[in-house]
Amino acid sequence: MTRKRILFVCVENSNRSQMAEAFAHLHGGDTVEAFSAGSRPSGRINPKAVRFMGELGYDLSTHASKSLDQMEGDFDAVITMGCGDNCPWIPAKRREDWGLPDPRDMDDDGYRMVRDDIGRRVQALLASL
User: Fold this and answer.
1) Which of these is catalytic: 11, 49, 50, 83?
2) In this structure, are residues 49 and 118 in contact, taking their beta carbons and an 8 Å threshold?
3) Which of 38, 97, 118, 128 is in Cβ range 3.0-4.6 Å of 80 for a Cys bridge?
4) Does the annotation count 83 as an active-site position?
5) Which residues sit opposite 32 in a β-bridge?
6) Full strand arrangement of the beta sheet holding 32-38
7) Does residue 58 carry a catalytic annotation?
């Protein structure tokens, strides 16, 4: 079986796309190759993202903030996270924009709501590939 290649994109690659990549690893296991990148990467993972994914048993501190320029190859799906015009066109068999709010400045409950929404969306995406 060929593993599905998925790329999650947001602006800073420090919150939403990082959590989406983590959920794809958690729920997709060996059936998926998941990546995340930013159009203007911040160079760091938001400590809140690390903390709130840690609540689910995932160590996001092992990830790095990456640029879209570092992404190569073909993707089965490219998912943008509401970055609008800041997300350049990346060829893929399937494209979706999830239009998620950036949780960077949200309180803990708001951040968890975005995290959990991402988790549900990633599970639905994996089931549909």
Assistant:
1) 83
2) no
3) 97
4) yes
5) 4
6) 32-38, 4-10, 75-80, 92-97
7) no
